[in-house]
């Protein structure tokens, strides 16, 4: 609370728009640390207004990552995906997380937000993602096995990622929701190819039991 007070005092003595935006970024970092979503939302709106007054593009691109993280943390995965994808080639927000973590978030949100064609164009074939995706265990298999319809491999990779999702401070509260959304995506993709299919065939394709599919 005292940190926020001092940031307001400093803002009152600051003239340059860029430096005012930097103060908003400090406020956003405090908001994200304490998961104070009201503070984050107000700070994002404030930063956008400052940018309209003459902020630079580097800070605007940083703001997209902050806002995307806020959207992801509040389960607005579709908007988070859009903001993250816009920032792939301009990422400089290392004060929040390293680039490979950013790619981890981008892939996870994209899988449940984009259609198959968009996923291929914007994620599967994106050079920036290809350059670092192998640094995150199971992430490449998770993305590519979904796109290539290799469902057994997809579920193996998915199970490998679950612990990382559970341990993530922003994703953990949405763990069960995300698990359901991913299964919805992959089951829907599988079923599009058939007019009818037995539970046994589906279970075999995914490498799980019939009871698991039934549930």
Oligomer type = single chain
In which range does the helix fraction lie?
over 70%
> Helix/strand-derived class?
mainly alpha
- How many helical elements? 13
Tell me the strand percentage band.
under 5%
Function: Acts as a regulatory subunit of the 26S proteasome which is involved in the ATP-dependent degradation of ubiquitinated proteins.
Pfam families: PCI, RPN7
GO biological process, one term: proteasome-mediated ubiquitin-dependent protein catabolic process
Protein name: 26S proteasome regulatory subunit RPN7
Structure description:
This protein is an all-alpha fold and 215 residues long. The protein has one domain: Serine Threonine Protein Phosphatase 5, Tetratricopeptide repeat, CATH 1.25.40. 72% of the residues lie in helices and 0% in strands. The chain is elongated, with a radius of gyration of 20 Å. The mean pLDDT is 94. InterPro entries: PCI_dom, Rpn7/CSN1, Rpn7_N, WH_DNA-bd_sf. One of its GO terms (biological process) is proteasome-mediated ubiquitin-dependent protein catabolic process. Belongs to the proteasome subunit S10 family.
Blueprint of the fold:
Blueprint: H1 2-12, H2 17-33, H3 37-52, H4 57-73, H5 77-87, H6 99-111, H7 116-124, H8 127-132, H9 139-147, H10 151-166, H11 175-191, H12 199-206, H13 210-214
Features:
mainly alpha; single chain; Serine Threonine Protein Phosphatase 5, Tetratricopeptide repeat; 215 residues
Task: Write a brief caption for the model.
This protein has helices at 2-12, 17-33, 37-52, 57-73, 77-87, 99-111, 116-124, 127-132, 139-147, 151-166, 175-191, 199-206, 210-214.
């Amino acid at each position: 609370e005292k940190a926020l007070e001092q940031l307001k005092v400093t803002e009152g003595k600051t003239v340059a728009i860029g430096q005012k935006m930097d103060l908003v970024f400090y406020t956003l970092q405090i908001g994200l640390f304490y998961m104070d979503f009201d503070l984050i939302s107000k700070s994002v709106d404030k930063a956008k207004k400052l940018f309209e007054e003459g902020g630079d593009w580097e800070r605007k691109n940083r703001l997209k990552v902050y806002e995307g993280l806020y959207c992801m943390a509040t389960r607005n995965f579709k908007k988070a995906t859009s903001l993250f994808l816009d920032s792939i080639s301009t990422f400089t927000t290392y004060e929040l997380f390293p680039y490979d973590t950013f790619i981890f978030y981008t892939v996870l949100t994209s899988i449940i937000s984009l259609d198959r064609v968009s996923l291929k164009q914007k994620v599967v074939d994106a050079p920036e993602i290809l350059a670092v995706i192998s640094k995150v265990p199971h992430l490449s298999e998770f993305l590519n096995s979904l796109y290539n319809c290799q469902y057994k491999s997809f579920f193996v990779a998915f199970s490998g990622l679950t612990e990382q999702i559970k341990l993530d401070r922003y994703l953990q509260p949405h763990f069960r929701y995300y698990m359901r959304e991913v299964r919805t995506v992959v089951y829907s993709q599988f079923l599009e190819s058939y007019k009818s299919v037995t539970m046994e065939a589906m279970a075999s394709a995914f490498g799980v039991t019939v009871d698991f599919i039934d549930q």
